Every structure is written in C-alpha cells, then in structure tokens.
Amino acid sequence: MTDIIASPSTRRLARQKDVDIDALAKRLGRTTIAPEDLDRRPGAEQAADTALWDVDHTQYGAVSDEPMSRFAQVAARNMAAAQSLIPAVTHHDRADVTAMEAFRHSLRSEAEGRGVKLTALTFHVVALARCLRRFGRFNASLSSDGQRLILKDYVHIGIAVDTPHGLMVPVIRDADRKGLWQIAADITDLAARAQARKIKPAEMGGASMTITNLGGIGGTAFSPIVNPPEVAILGITRTETVTIWDGDTPRPVPMVPLDLSYDHRVINGADAARFMAHYCTLIADPRHMMI
C-alpha cells in the first residue's frame, strides 16, 4: 500500500513502538494512520461478539446480496470505533438565516459573472472557521493516551460529500485565510472531484473539524458521529420557518437547524453552548463573519 498519511509525530512514535505503518495500514484497510492506531493488536478490531447477527435471512423471504465496497468497509470500521470509544454529546441549536440569504441572493449576479456557485454552505464554512479561531479547544486533537491536548495553529475544514461510492470528506485548507469567493470555488471543486473519485488521499486528512450538510435532502435534527482525531463535528439540516414572537406579534423567521457533536473528554456543555451561540450570531448577521 502506498501514500499512507501519517503525521511526523505518528511516524516517530511508530518507530519507538517498532510498528510498521505500511503493514498496519494494510491490515486495517486504511490510508490514514493516527497515533491511537499504533496500539491496535491484530484482530482487535474484530473483538466484539457479533455471532448473533449472523442470521439466515432467506428463511424469512427472498433476499439478494450487495457487497460493500472496500471504501465503505473502511468507513464503517472507523465510525464504529469512534462511536464505541468517544463519549460524544450532541448540542442542538438553530440560527436565523434571513440576513444571510438576503446577502447571498444580492450576490447572485456577481456569482454568475465569476462562474461560482455561492451556496449557503459557503457561509457556514466561513462562520465555522471564525469560531475555530475564537474557541481553540474545538480546533484541537486529544493525544492517544488522553493526557495532552494538541492545539492547532491552522484551520482546515472537512466537507462531507455523499457520493455513489460512499461518504468522502475532502478538506478546505486554511479556511480562515480565504475569502467567500475562494471558499465557494473550493467547495465546488472538491465536491465535483469527490463525485468523480478524483480526490487524492492527501486532500482528505488533517481537518480541524468537519461539516456534514443534509440541508439539500431534509431532516430536522440528527447526531453526527465525531470523526477522530477531530473533537467535534457540525451537522446542518433543512432550513425551516419558525414563528418568533416579537412582543404580542408573531413573526415567521427562516431558521437553520444545527447539530454539534463533540468529544466530552475535551469539551463540556458550556463550551459547546458558547461556541454555538457565537456561531449563530455570525450566521444571523454575515457582516460579522466578513470582518
């Protein structure tokens, strides 16, 4: 296996532990190796007893087999490990998108002239980048022994892309240093290449945090699974009209539901509430995120 992604510190730790990273990646079916992977014993990922799941479904009716791709199998193992090992909590919130949508539509002609699709996701990436700079614990990773917090002086944001061959998460590098138009162009480029399976392994590692957006499909809330070594993930669902009372006067307001799942070993509930309060403020008034 080639093009194994591992940080210099992970490779140094592997040498100290006498672990062959290439062999480990091949055994795990992975192209990315993190420090916590170095302590995995052969067969440990199969330790759970799943014998009761082995059922002859044909006894109940007609069935057919659809083999899972290797990519899907790897993703399934990673998500199962994350769900089992990370004490995750999901904070639910929502943000007023009235001003953001008005601003986005006011830029429609300029977007067409630039040949760029300016989606709502673009604004979410900008807002998240600002929040990650303000709240450093969210832009961090926990060491494999759980004793150190690795704080990052960069902001890279993963974008979950639903493709026919499985979920892919390409990464927008240095999102905090890019303007609205560049981020919009990056999203379009990465999503298109993910659909065409043209994303390189190096373009899917090292995210500070990931956004998973179901707004184009539906839903009112969900609990996204934290993607280690990240410590949080932001979920977005479809914008809905909510009645807000201005005194005795009801007012319909478009609100986007937001779901922040976080690793409770690193982030507590008050941290998450403050993070999302600031995030919602940025979304509600895009002038703040443009500064």
What's the structural blueprint in terms of helices and strands?
Layout: H1 8-17, H2 21-28, H3 70-85, E1 88-96, H4 98-106, H5 108-114, H6 120-134, E2 140-142, E3 149-151, E4 157-159, E5 161-163, E6 166-168, E7 171-172, H7 180-195, E8 209-213, E9 232-236, E10 240-246, E11 249-263, H8 269-284, H9 286-290
Parallel strand pairs: 4-8, 8-9
Antiparallel strand pairs: 1-11, 2-3, 4-7, 5-6, 9-11, 10-11
Summarize the structure.
The protein is α+β, with helices and mostly antiparallel strands and 291 residues long. The protein has 9 helices and 11 strands.
Explain what this protein looks like in three dimensions.
With 291 residues, the chain is α+β, with helices and mostly antiparallel strands. It folds into two domains: 1-40; 87-290, Chloramphenicol acetyltransferase-like domain (Chloramphenicol Acetyltransferase). 35% of the residues lie in helices and 20% in strands. The protein is built from nine helices and eleven strands. Strands 1, 4, 7, 8, 9, 10 and 11 form a seven-stranded mixed sheet that branches. Strands 2-3 form a two-stranded antiparallel sheet. It has a two-stranded antiparallel ribbon with strand order 5-6. Helix 6 (120-134) crosses helix 7 and helix 6 (120-134) crosses helix 8 (269-284). The longest helix has 16 residues, at 70-85. The chain is globular and about 65 Å long. The relative contact order is 0.16. The model has no long low-confidence stretch (mean pLDDT 90).
